[in-house]
TrEMBL record:
Organism lineage string: Eukaryota, Metazoa, Chordata, Craniata, Vertebrata
Name of the protein described by the UniProt record: Nectin cell adhesion molecule 4b
Keyword Magnesium found: no
Protease recorded as keyword: no
GO biological process, one term: homophilic cell adhesion via plasma membrane adhesion molecules
Gene source species: Mastacembelus armatus (zig-zag eel)
Transmembrane regions: 337-360
Protein's cellular compartments: Membrane
Region described as Disordered: 482-550
Length: 583
């Protein structure tokens, strides 16, 4: 009983030891492994056992299992006797490492289809015993493919245009890459070969079109393409053209051209004239019939071109007519059309330029007119503002009856201008010679109220006209100032200070002289005698007398002090208005 228990314990320890030792296989890690390889390539069968301390690999042996279940020894390696190859595997297999007991991987440099099968790697160790790994190898055969084109002829019935074949393991798959209208059919035979047939109805338009075969296989990363172009032969055809198109007597360098078609392209070209030999001076250069001389009238006739290939014959004719004179009166129709197009384009361009210039001119005129209007409006606005500012300055003058110093200065200038006019209006004539004199002069020389000598001329009428223009100019300047003033006739000033326009409107007499240059208490002196005067001169004397009386009246109300005309003191502190009767 105890012996049986000890045996059971030993068996358990043996199983545990075997399980622990199996874990020491580096590759393959699993007891059974499947591999795939390609024919004519190197195949590696892995087997690597890692020993522990106290263990040693004594021998390594590779076996191949046969279909009947037996094993065929391939190669063995002993840690002391080296390695040995057996049977038909001699020279076809070898260990990967120079130390097979350490790395026992097997290499098949050139794999064959017959190498497919199941292999066993047997490891013998001391003292632990034997260990194995099983590897199943599958060998693929890359496809061997080919394409057989067929030469077709136009007009043939529906038939095979190309055949594609492939052999491989596993069996490859075939397809076609083309735009041609047709059908294909695949057939598989024993031994892993497959064939594909592409059929169509041949036409000349199909000649040279793509008809490629594609081979598909799991051992290929992408399908293998077999390029092919369809060949369809057809008989030749020919056409004749004349260069130039207008033939006339005397034409130089003329030729007839035979345009050739067909496949294969014809190599031989035959020319005929009126069914016989060609005229003299004519040579055949390829597909051209060249005239090496000037065209004659008798060169007219029927010219024929005959071409041949291995499929058929092509023939064409051309009727040539030679005229005595050229029928062209101008350039060719194409040249005339080109000239018409150029002329029309130039005319359109000129019209566009004229329209553009007119539009630009109109735009600038409109703009200038607009700018002129804006400038006129701005100018008018500025003038209005200036006139309003002038009115404001003039209206700012005080209306106090007691006239300020500035006002008296202006009135004094006005009075001086009036007295100068009076002195010019009262000349003294002595005979027909110019004299100096006047009612204000002394020593026989006539002076005005400012002490200036007065010059008189014999040309009375012309001088009076100049005097009148000067008086009118002075009067307008004075009136321009007086009108802009806000002083009224009722301001209490004497009549000499009333604006000139108002006095004339009221029927007041001539303007009074300036009294601003008299000193206080002074009065003007009148000449005691005067030459006989005409009625007109008497009228001028009356005006002078009235002016003198007006000056006297002004002296009763004003006095001149320090160059300024000031009102005399009065009990009621007001200015008396001059009576019209004084004038």
């Amino acid at each position: 009983m105890e012996l049986a228990q000890q045996k059971a314990k030993c068996l358990a320890l043996l199983f545990l030891l075997v399980g622990w030792v199996q874990a020491d296989f580096v590759e393959p890690p699993q007891p059974d492994t499947s591999l795939r390889s390609l024919a004519e390539s190197q195949t590696r069968l892995p087997c690597h056992y890692k020993v522990e301390d106290g263990q040693k690999v004594v021998q390594v042996t590779w076996y191949k299992e046969l279909p009947d279940g037996s094993k065929d020894q391939i190669i063995t390696a002993h840690f002391m006797d080296g390695h040995t190859e057996f049977g038909r595997y001699s020279g076809r297999v070898r260990f990967e490492s120079s130390s097979p007991t350490e790395n026992s991987a097997l290499l098949i440099p050139s794999t064959e289809e017959s190498d497919e099968g199941s292999y066993t790697c047997h490891i013998s160790t001391f003292p632990n015993g034997n260990f194995e790994r099983h590897i199943t190898l599958t060998v693929w055969l890359l496809p061997i493919s080919s394409l057989d084109p067929v030469t077709l002829v136009e007009g043939q019935s529906f038939r095979v245009a190309a055949t594609c074949r492939a052999v491989g393991r596993p069996i490859p798959r075939l397809s076609w890459d083309t735009d041609l209208p047709g059908q294909f059919q695949n057939r598989t035979s024993e031994g892993g070969s497959v064939s594909s047939y592409y059929s169509l109805h041949p036409l000349r338009g199909m000649n040279g079109k793509k008809l490629d075969c594609l081979v598909w296989h799991p051992g290929l990363e992408q399908p293998r393409r077999i390029s092919n172009s369809l060949v369809v032969q057809y008989p030749p055809d020919a056409t004749i053209s004349a260069v130039p198109s207008d033939w006339y007597v005397g034409l130089e360098k003329a030729e007839l051209v035979c345009d050739i078609g067909g496949y294969p392209k014809p190599q031989n070209v035959t020319w005929t004239w009126r069914g016989g030999a060609l005229p003299d001076g004519v040579s055949v250069i390829g597909g051209k019939l060249a005239f090496g001389r000037s065209i004659r009238l008798n060169d007219s006739g029927v010219y024929g071109c005959v071409v041949k290939n291995n499929v058929g014959v092509g023939k064409t004719e051309y009727v040539l007519t030679v005229a005595e004179k050229s029928q062209r009166k101008g350039g060719s129709p194409d040249d005339n059309l080109l000239l018409i197009i150029i002329g029309a384009s130039a005319g359109a361009l000129v019209i566009i330029l004229v329209i553009a210039v007119l539009l630009v001119n109109r735009y600038h005129r409109h703009r200038n007119k607009k700018l002129e209007i804006e400038l006129s409006e701005k100018t008018q606005e500025i003038n209005n503002l200036s006139r309003q500012n002038s009115f404001r300055r003039l209206n700012s003058v005080s209306t106090d009856p007691r006239v300020q110093a500035e006002d008296y200065a202006l009135l004094r200038v006005d009075s001086r201008m009036k007295n100068s006019e009076m002195s010019l209006e009262q000349p003294i004539y002595k005979g027909s010679q110019s004299t100096l004199g006047g009612k204000w002069g002394t020593g026989g020389v006539e002076v005005d109220e400012l002490g200036r000598p007065v010059v008189w001329h014999d040309g009375r009428e012309s001088f009076r006209g100049a005097e009148m223009e000067e008086k009118e100019e002075r009067r307008r300047r004075v009136e321009s100032y007086v009108k802009s003033s806000n002083m009224s006739l009722d301001s209490g000033l004497p009549s000499s200070l009333v604006p000139l326009k108002a006095q004339q409107d009221d029927g007041v007499g001539p303007r009074e002289p300036d009294v601003g240059h008299f000193s206080e208490g002074d009065s003007p002196h009148v000449e005691d005698w005067a030459p006989p005067r005409s009625p007109e001169e008497g009228h001028e004397d009356d005006e002078a007398s009235s002016s003198y009386q007006l000056s006297k009246a002004l002296q009763n109300h004003f006095y001149y002090s320090n160059g300024i005309l000031r009102p005399r003191p009065h009990s009621n502190a007001t200015l008396l208005q001059a009576s019209p009767q004084i004038i």
